[in-house]
Design brief:
CATH architecture: Up-down Bundle
Distance between the termini: 77 Å
Shape: elongated
CATH superfamily: Cytochrome c oxidase, subunit III, four-helix bundle
Number of domains: 1
Number of helices: 7
Length: 204
């Protein structure tokens, strides 16, 4: 029995000894790189199909730039508030971290609400994804980004529950770092969408 316990102890020690301290963060970076490839393919597809209107409406005719600019502000400010949450985390202030995370979540939800309103309006005027290759590419690119924001919000709410229950334990700190990378990544992608799809599309 004692030999079995000793063997298990040795195995556990070896497993811990070979576990990379930053393995989770490195793995998450690899995931973000794969996500970059997905969005690169979607941007390329949109670029190829950006003139394929099939006689239908163009983005320049239907885009509401002030509304999109407001939505962009929601997402950019959410990145700033997430930065404040990380500062509070580094100071060991759980309550402050949770407050700034909640504000980030509200801004992210506002972004999604405006995006859903825009999609509803486009569908109402007959510019759905089935209307032309252009609108198919538009809905796929912008919708994929919106799906990522939705996943980020679910993750954020889950983290709030974990913080309330367990506090700023090392595992939660690591999860906050990963979500921070994910959230800022979505910001960068949206800047590309806003510039390439909306601004350039409005000038077409």
């Amino acid at each position: 029995m004692s030999q079995s316990v000793a063997a298990n102890t040795n195995l556990n020690f070896i497993a811990r000894d070979h576990h990379a301290p930053n393995g989770t963060l490195f793995g998450f970076w690899l995931y973000l790189m794969s996500d970059c490839l997905i969005f690169a393919a979607l941007f390329a597809t949109y670029g190829v199909l950006s003139q394929s209107y099939a006689g239908g409406p163009t983005g320049a005719e239907l885009f509401d730039l002030p509304l999109v600019a407001l939505n962009t502000a929601f997402l950019l400010f959410s990145s700033i508030t997430y930065g404040f949450a990380m500062l509070q985390m580094q100071q060991g202030k759980r309550q402050g971290t949770m407050i700034w995370l909640a504000i980030t979540g509200l801004l992210g939800a506002a972004f999604l609400a405006v995006e859903l309103y825009e999609f509803s309006h486009l569908l109402h005027v007959g510019a759905g994804p089935q209307r032309s290759a252009y609108w198919s590419a538009f809905f796929t690119l912008v919708g994929t980004h919106g799906l990522h924001v939705t996943i980020g919000l679910i993750w954020l709410v889950t983290l709030l529950v974990q913080l309330k229950k367990h506090g700023l334990i090392p595992e939660n700190r690591r999860r906050l770092f990963c979500l921070s990378m994910f959230w800022h990544f979505l910001d960068v992608i949206w800047i590309g969408v806003f510039t390439f799809v909306y601004l350039m599309g409005s000038m077409a």
